[in-house]
Batch of 3 targets.
Target 1
Amino acid sequence: MSIVVLGTVALDDVATPSGKRREMLGGSAAHFAMSARLFTSVHLVAVVGKDFPAKHIGLLRNKGLILDSLVKAGGRTFRWQGRYSGDLNTAITLNTELGVLSSFRPFISEGERLIKHIFLANVDPDIQRHLLAGMRSPELVGLDSMNYWIKHKRRSLLQLLKKVDIYVANDQEARLLSGEHNLVAAARYLCNLGPKMVLVKKGEHGVLFYGNNVLFSLPAYPVEKVVDPTGAGDTFAGGFMGYLSKAKKIDAASIKRALAYGTVAASFNVEGFGLERTARLTAGDLKRRLKKFKSYF
Amino acid sequence: MSIVVLGTVALDDVATPSGKRREMLGGSAAHFAMSARLFTSVHLVAVVGKDFPAKHIGLLRNKGLILDSLVKAGGRTFRWQGRYSGDLNTAITLNTELGVLSSFRPFISEGERLIKHIFLANVDPDIQRHLLAGMRSPELVGLDSMNYWIKHKRRSLLQLLKKVDIYVANDQEARLLSGEHNLVAAARYLCNLGPKMVLVKKGEHGVLFYGNNVLFSLPAYPVEKVVDPTGAGDTFAGGFMGYLSKAKKIDAASIKRALAYGTVAASFNVEGFGLERTARLTAGDLKRRLKKFKSYF
């Protein structure tokens, strides 16, 4: 099965205790795709500006991503500037420049509209709804969002939640949208808003899954040297959705395995800046670490 | 195998979002013992004051704990007053009254000195060293401490660490004593101070185990309604040490199972104030929840 991912492709300036990078390839869709590609063919739906370096396009293409709907618009690429201090758990956003994102309406080919597995990575919920409305026969739809949209486009997000199967949130977002501090209670609440499954990503503390009265809880893969956590959540979602997209059926066993693959993919992501580590990743690397991960509990 | 636990037996005043309790039976040794009793016979070594209610002694005795070395001294029982706000992860200490603890030197019978499994629950490290020095043939020694002793009796604690097999710390304590923020790095550092095994308790985020270049990481048991987390760490240690004390050998499999038992015991502890829930707990309850816990990952 192929998968369509809509989201951002960005130029990131990031500073962490391990160093700095400028105009690094990033964005929610790019991180998702770099992880999901290890399981399935990935169609990347996003917009970049005229300033977007050809080498980044080259990298995405070389990694086997299908770029038919990666459009180049007049204007500057979406940019994010952030830093992490000592605990590496929370990003501090220094600046966001929407650029070409501000007028983006995804347009995809008739062929891509037929793809049944879709991930709406973090981007304005109105853009997410626009894409989803054009899909002909969605079967498995995942959604990610962020605090900003929960605060400023709550209504649009709530409508969208009714139409998706999987909602992926981090702990802060889950608490903000549900009003529940306890994460099990929050996940249950969010599940009642529409999605069949809710994933609460807790960063270095792992992930909580809730769906159909079933609960799963996995620790993170212990990484001793975190270089840059940017995109770890999207990388997680890419591994999770990628595996599920390939799995023959969606049941407790395949969901657990998908969660473990997401965890392991995210652990590689944090070991390098941006996509540095995941771009080199192979399915073999992922399998070997999965085995090690399973020995940890 | 029997186990000797040294620590505090306290009167706790606790306020949480679920309510308040006054002069509730608590303390590190009491919480440890209430959990370890489900695996092995537990000898409680502690001191209480003249004000200690007979009903509390009755409860401890009824639960099968061996109280030969629970001494009553002139003065007031050790008291702790604390509260938890919304997130229930961090206790705010309002007041501590040492009372009889300030002059406590544990004195135990010749028979108890022969017991090979020992847990030094949180109390002044000088008291812990005093007890350990009197044990005839320790085979498995666990140690817990707290921020206060790490700051004020670091030297004494470091000497003690050389003589124990297992060091149990929460994440803050592990960071404080090691100077490492990353918990894997912290656990590795602490292991180099003497103990063969280090357990880092992360509260609602589970536990990290490091020993002999082996790493385990378990999530917490997801509890939707946390009533009072007081004593959860000691309850965890009681389940962990209790199971290991009973196990035929200490290897990867038995350590993992011990960690799971500790996790599950702690999950019951937080469901009630103080010892309310764990005092009613049976080995059957523990086994049933262990099975459920294992289905979560």
Target 2
Amino acid sequence: MVNYPNGKKSTFAASKTGQGGRGMVLEQDLNQTNTFYLEQDLAVVYKKPTPVTIVKVDYPKRSAAKITEAYFKLPSTTDYNGIYRNRYLDFEAKECSSKTSFPLSSIHEHQIDHLKRVLQHGAIAFVIIRFTHLDETYFVDAQEMIDYIETSSRQSIPYTWFQTHGHLIAYNYVKPVDYLSIIDEYYF
Amino acid sequence: MVNYPNGKKSTFAASKTGQGGRGMVLEQDLNQTNTFYLEQDLAVVYKKPTPVTIVKVDYPKRSAAKITEAYFKLPSTTDYNGIYRNRYLDFEAKECSSKTSFPLSSIHEHQIDHLKRVLQHGAIAFVIIRFTHLDETYFVDAQEMIDYIETSSRQSIPYTWFQTHGHLIAYNYVKPVDYLSIIDEYYF
């Protein structure tokens, strides 16, 4: 969905995720899934644009405005939200390169606060975590993850916890991260 | 909520709206209102970040990554969404400098399509329009505006239409665009 002229994409992705660009694969899979949902009129879910602070913009004559100085901002919310079967959906998606545990430092504290808030107002809120080396993608209810974080002193969640508390999302060619199938099963 | 170091804000705003920066006033009022709602735990509503295509990023040592080439992208959705009383909210906000009518060219066709889609899935969807010279801000149900657009051949909506079909939002110092009061009255 996002166009990077100049072929700079992989550089940008690599530096942003620090994982050799792998951070973008889950995002691409989710974009494809959300586009499928949209085209089939099943749900309306979008990834929010990356928040940037724009400092300088050039307005060359006869061509598009060019941003020449901008900085990444820390997001105050999760990356994805939308609507499905009259319900507000809200989630964050993360790739994890470890095979044994998911480091909690990957999710910002204000994102956890955001998930708590939307839960209070009636959202279906969750986190999608992909263990890249195991090629497994889990759907985790946000409340369950928050309960874990608030009762444990660990700085990470063991992989085995996802096996018991998460729902493995089966890979599907047209909808690579079919999270609505999990929502249908557990929330309706 | 958005910080523009360098004091470039007014230049950017003016050029972006083409209305001497006035386009940002409604946005600021809505940011203030949404922050108030958030702090009072009434609703969780955010403006989506401005979508930009990032082409070039510099990573200077010991300082933040600097975007040196990026372009504005056309948004595919509305600017605001969130949750209130278990319902998904979705809306667009526009300033209008004319005293007599609101030009339909201000709202992109794909934004109208987006509003139609979320309505089908059960959203509370609306448009907030401020007539800047009259200092009046109207709440308009998205379905009503879509019905007008699809049955009229006009390229604009007359101001008088807003007086009869819209709801005037009373100014409030702590919540300058108190759209939840309208939602409470007409949607619950």
Target 3
Amino acid sequence: MERFEVDILGCGSALPTTKHSLSSQVVNLRDKLFMIDCGEATQLQFRAMKLNFMRLNHIFISHLHGDHCFGLPGLISTLGLLGRTAELHVHAQPDAEKMFRPMLDYFCKELPYPVIFQAFDPKKNALIFEDRTLCVSTIPLKHRVPTAGFLFEEKPKRAHILREMIDFYQVPFSQINAVKDGADFVTPDGQIVANARLTRPADAPQKYAYCSDTSYYEKIIPIIEGVDLLYHDTTFGESEAVRAKQTMHSTAHQAAEIARAANVKKLVLGHFSARYPNENVLLTEAQAIFPNTVLAAELTCLKL
Amino acid sequence: MERFEVDILGCGSALPTTKHSLSSQVVNLRDKLFMIDCGEATQLQFRAMKLNFMRLNHIFISHLHGDHCFGLPGLISTLGLLGRTAELHVHAQPDAEKMFRPMLDYFCKELPYPVIFQAFDPKKNALIFEDRTLCVSTIPLKHRVPTAGFLFEEKPKRAHILREMIDFYQVPFSQINAVKDGADFVTPDGQIVANARLTRPADAPQKYAYCSDTSYYEKIIPIIEGVDLLYHDTTFGESEAVRAKQTMHSTAHQAAEIARAANVKKLVLGHFSARYPNENVLLTEAQAIFPNTVLAAELTCLKL
């Protein structure tokens, strides 16, 4: 299996504490790094996790609250000091460029690489990025300001060749790629070897959904149906359900309800309020509804 | 002696590392807190030092490079979440308000307290703040962008009363303040008791000078003459003297030359380049010229 993991840089909510950093995580797909959100001090957490700054080319910002984006200018500046020349793409809603471009123009005049803001509409479920192996699309969420989550989907993978059958039929190297893509093989004497004899099925493409910050919002369920891992806003526990509603965040109970309804494989809780000295109360509440639930924690890595 | 100390929140240079945070420190004068510079993640260091956010009313920004001010929006936002209502004063050059006001207007719409930017001219040595016990003035520095250091001077203090003499002459409580301010005491039968019999001299007012970022710049010497503590830019060692000149920073040697020429009592080196795995080489170079030198370090407190 190729690497597909999520590194948690910060999973606290608005008020950073000595325990929790502000929202940021990195999706690592086959050593290409995709950042989601970039709260203050994200660059420090990135460094603490020993991630490679040069492998980061795309940053996705869910919404324009400071705890999800105040780390951008510092990170962008640091990438310049490290000698970056490759484009950096910041995917966010249109106001992001309005707010951050003037700062970059003033503070990062000599930046040796271009920063490209790519605007998306947080109200739409739309494809906003794709490359050879990955599609990223927006998940409209329900929060105090326009907010989108992100769905990271691997593209369908190629079948695995069966080495011993390739050897047996003496399939030449030049035809291996065609076989991986599904072609039958024709031997020099005209015999057709069905593709199914030469390969075993591809690994299922994996999916990761990031849904923070949001109220309980059933409209996301069909979009995140069956994902391997769901990170869902869990700012509060049941005792703070009223406050969750007021601030348009979710409780552990609500996160678990969404996970169950969407048949996700695993749920990770995050965006914790500073009021919880530990989050086991949130974990217990969620597991009562959706057992395969874990707590996010800084500097840890979740494998899909 | 009343409390006068400097808390080091960050003493690294532009590139934050796992060892050094970005520039910020807090002058604590009798439990009133004055912040100097506010690099990214300053609010985390402030919290880590268990300083009281409510005692902070003034922030002084030396210059508009990101490593000295990118922590402002996050800190200002956090103070709001903590329920602050008192004014916060940010003393900086005029561009600071141009850059940060739009961010505050967008990201901190519901801030429950006013942020007041007070502009100063970094080219002038001028008084920019005073209260009952303290004067703060600018120290023009020489850097790639307009930059000022800051001189924190206690105001002259009042004499100490000699408790046993006060009792002996039966000085009434109502006259104690006058005696502290230098008045003689006249007994009920007309005898004049000279102030010098009733008091011992006041403690000398103390002075702290912050000079970062700057090239070697002799014009600051008369301004910082005789200060109790000097924090001076020491980004590089002698082997990087050329780079120091190019980037308009100082070497340890140069910092020590300034300290010696200005007859300061103690020198603290800071704003270290990330290239030094430890800064003992800088300390050794400085102490060869000015022995009473120490290295700054995060989360430590320097008493005047």
